[in-house]
Amino acid sequence: MERDQFNEAKKREEVERKAIKDNALRTLLTSEARERLGNVKMVKPEVAQIIENSIIQQASTGRLKRPMNDDELKAILQSMQQPKKEFKFKRI
User: What dotted CATH number matches 2-62?
Assistant: First the structure.
């Protein structure tokens, strides 16, 4: 019984934390940037999580003075991309 109550409390806390995070991102990103981040979240949730945490960290330290726009979010995504490896095949 106690374990069920603990699990329920943990779930409620997680839902509350997610709501606070979503609300913060709503004010820290423009609508275009939020849409792009949503698309990234569908494809690569771990990358989106890192970016969300980074944006919230920047805002909490005062480095983000205004809502981040789509171009700034694109720049962050491009900086996170690993360089593509090039393969060359020699035909004999």
Answer: 1.10.8
